[in-house]
Structure formats: structure tokens, C-alpha cells
Design brief:
Length: 373
């Protein structure tokens, strides 16, 4: 949710994961990199009257990309520059967004301060890298901007007290499709990007969002979270356990990523909720539930049905089934057994004293299998 993804994970990006184009994919730039370039151009113009265009910045790993300006103005004690974000071939909902930075002289001795303009959110809950009350501009972009502006100030022989305001017009509407509202970031998007580079179809952004969801839960005293594979299972687990929205993490296919993070950032209880096919994969030892990276073993599913009393003909039909859903129709007793085995797999990954339960959900959102406390 925000490569800005906080929350990772963005629904458009999630849907597009299954439509990855063929061939070599073009990398793009994070909102943090765009904001750094815009800030550098604006501050240069504030001090000299001239905008570098294109403007070149240095990224944390040494790359030096150049960004053309889409907007620039100076006067009245401030300077503004805008850059259109190019996310490359990544299905990022902020691709094409205008990142606008306005700089003006700050209070003497204050150094560089950051402010949220239109479309940039404000943090309201603890547990995120930025404390409540601050604009949702993460530490890495802040560091890049500080380094760029400090270098300009040193070259011009000035103190470098600068107020930096970042805006993303339309960002509040885009943020409704991100994790930001659930994480307690109100009013717009986050400005993120550890390296400055968007790697197309990277899973790291989604896992980052899962981790931030767990961090916020820990910081706000939530003792029971649920990891859901999608919207249907999220609604089902909230009904089943009476959970509030902020207690549910959209883990997607990354159950392993969630469980491994809980090992080092534990909570008292976790529920894993998903459809029959995905949780069958977990029961069979897969920690990545994506269809391109794991498949249901129908032979093993047939053998499991046999332990539940399915006759040889039913087992043969399950082995020849086209889908896990077809197999489920042949042996309705499977969900509880799948839930039990999936719980055993989850407990194998987890260390420490974390209570685990599994909820198997059908396509209509009904709870059809459960195991655990």
C-alpha cells in the first residue's frame, strides 16, 4: 500500500499480479525518489532563481537518475517543483501521479522540517516508523531529501533551515485503496521507498505491509489478529471471531511471510483464514499460496479423504478432479481435517507461545472448517 504501499499493498496491484506481462520489465521510481528530486529542484530555485531540469539525485545505493520537471514556480518566498511518478512496469496505483514539493525558509535552527500537503497522509496511531502527528513521509525519503538539501545549502553557504511540504493531488482518493486507513494514516498516501527504485511485481511491498499491520497491532494493544487471504475470508473471520477491521491483516498468499514476522514480533493469538484450496496448500506444507508458486496435491488430498472414511471410488474421483473445489464437493468432511493440518504447519513455523487457529471459508463467505482454540 505505497511505494508508497504501506501498506503494500494496493488492490489494483494485487489484482494485476496475475497479469504480469512477458519479457524484461522496466523498473520505476518510488514516491520518495520523486519527492527528493522535486525538493532538490525547488530548493535550488529558491536559492538561485533557476530550476535544474532535468534534476539529478543520488539514491541510497549510488544510482543517479534524472527527472524531468512537470511543474515549476518560484516567488513569494517559496519555490515549487512537480514530478510525474513513473513506476515502470509495476502495477502501482500511483503510477502517473504528480508529486509536488514546495520549499520555503524555515525557522532559524529548525533544520529541515516536513509537512503534509494535499493528498499526503498524517500518522495517527503508534507502531509505524513515523510517530503519530507527523506527515506520512517515511525515514528513507526524509533522509534522501535532507542529504540533497543539505548539500545545496552547503554549496550556497546558507544555514539550511527549510520547510518541505509534499503534496500528491488526488492522493486522498487513491489512499482509500491502500492499507493506510487501516494503519491509522489519514488524509492521503504515504511517501515511501527504501532504495528509491520500484522493482516490478516485487513481493517485498506486500510483505512490508503485512509487517506494518502487525507492528500497529502490537503498538495499539491488539492481542488477536487474523491473516486473511482475501476480502471474502476477511469478512468471514471478522464475523466468526467478532474482530474489528484493524485486527485483520490482508496477508494474501504470503502466510509464510506473516508467520515468520510473528516469530520475532509475537502477538498472543493469530487466526489464519482462507479458502479451501489455499489452506489445503498450507496443510500440505506450502508457505506461499499463489497459484504460480504452489499447487494442491490431489493425491494427498484423496489420501486424507480416505482417512476420513471416503471409499476408494471417491478417492479416485478426488485424484482425477480438476480443482480443489471439485474435490471438496466429493468429500464434504475435508475442511476440518485441512484446518487441523494447516494449523500443524503454522505451528511448525512459529516459535514461542502463540495461539493459532485456522478458519476455512467457502466462496460465499461461510465458515466450513475450523481447528484450534
Amino acid at each position: 500500500m505505497i511505494h508508497h504501499y504501506h501498506t503494500a499493498a494496493l488492490f489494483d496491484k494485487i489484482i494485476a499480479m496475475d497479469r504480469k506481462p512477458e519479457g524484461k520489465l522496466r523498473r520505476g521510481w518510488t514516491t520518495g525518489a520523486c519527492a527528493t528530486a522535486a525538493a532538490k529542484a525547488a530548493y535550488t530555485a529558491l536559492l538561485t532563481g533557476d530550476f535544474p531540469d532535468p534534476v539529478t539525485i543520488r539514491l541510497p545505493r549510488g544510482q543517479t537518475p534524472a527527472f524531468p520537471l512537470a511543474q515549476k514556480s518560484v516567488g513569494g518566498g517559496s519555490a515549487t517543483a512537480g514530478i510525474i511518478k513513473d513506476a515502470g512496469d509495476d502495477p502501482d496505483v500511483t503510477h502517473g501521479a504528480l508529486i509536488i514539493v514546495t520549499v520555503r525558509a524555515g525557522q532559524a535552527g529548525a533544520g529541515i522540517t516536513f509537512h503534509a500537503g494535499e493528498g499526503v497522509g498524517t500518522v495517527t496511531r503508534p507502531g509505524l516508523p513515523i510517530p503519530p502527528g507527523e506527515p506520512a513521509i517515511n525515514p528513507a525519503p526524509r533522509k534522501m531529501i535532507r542529504e540533497a538539501l543539505d548539500a545545496i545549502a552547503a554549496a550556497q553557504g546558507v544555514a539550511g533551515d527549510v520547510a518541505v511540504t509534499i503534496a500528491i493531488p488526488g492522493g486522498a482518493k487513491i489512499a482509500e485503496r491502500t492499507w493506510n486507513p487501516r494503519l491509522g494514516i489519514t488524509g492521503g498516501l504515504s511517501v515511501l521507498g527504501t532504495t528509491g527504485i520500484v522493482i516490478p511485481y516485487s513481493c517485498s511491498a506486500w510483505i512490508h505491509s503485512i509487517r506494518r499491520g502487525i507492528d500497529v497491532a502490537r503498538a495499539t494493544g491488539i492481542s488477536h489478529i487474523a491473516g486473511a487471504t482475501g476480502k471474502t475470508s476477511e469478512a468471514a473471520v471478522r464475523r466468526f471471531h467478532g474482530l474489528e477491521e484493524e485486527s485483520v491483516v490482508d496477508m494474501g498468499d504470503f502466510v509464510g511471510g506473516m508467520l515468520k514476522y510473528l516469530n520475532t514480533h509475537p502477538l498472543p493469538r493469530v487466526t489464519i483464514a482462507g479458502g479451501f484450496a489455499k489452506l489445503t496448500k498450507l496443510a500440505q506444507g506450502h508457505l506461499d499460496l499463489h497459484s504460480a508458486r504452489s499447487q494442491v496435491d490431489l493425491d494427498r488430498l484423496a489420501a486424507l479423504a480416505g482417512t476420513l472414511g471416503a471409499d476408494p471410488d471417491i478417492q479416485a474421483s478426488i485424484r482425477g478432479a480438476n480443482t480443489a473445489a471439485q474435490a471438496l464437493g466429493l468429500a464434504p468432511a475435508l475442511p476440518d481435517a485441512v484446518a487441523r493440518l494447516a494449523r500443524e504447519e503454522a505451528l511448525r513455523v512459529l516459535s514461542g507461545d502463540i495461539a493459532v487457529d485456522i478458519l476455512v471459508v467457502d466462496r460465499q463467505g461461510g465458515a466450513i472448517g475450523h481447528a484450534g482454540p
